[in-house]
Amino acid sequence: MKISLKTTGIMSDxxxxxxxxxxxxxxxxxGAVFAQLVETLAIPDDERYVVSINDTLLPEPLQHPLQAxxxxxxxxxxxxx
Length: 81
Description:
Layout: E1 2-7, E2 23-27, H1 34-41, E3 50-53, E4 56-58, E5 71-75
């Protein structure tokens, strides 16, 4: 299944080489959950990020099922001083 992935900030470092402008279309197995996307991108376990899938922020996204056509946004957390 194909999903659309967008990233912001440092999270763009984990995108494949063919990504452009922080965006890429990715092919994942049917029935994949967000954790499989994290594994595919080789995002370290201790990396912090915020996730939105189809414009819904997910506080605990790892076991969230993905579906063909989903738009996933992985954002670097914001910090204010």
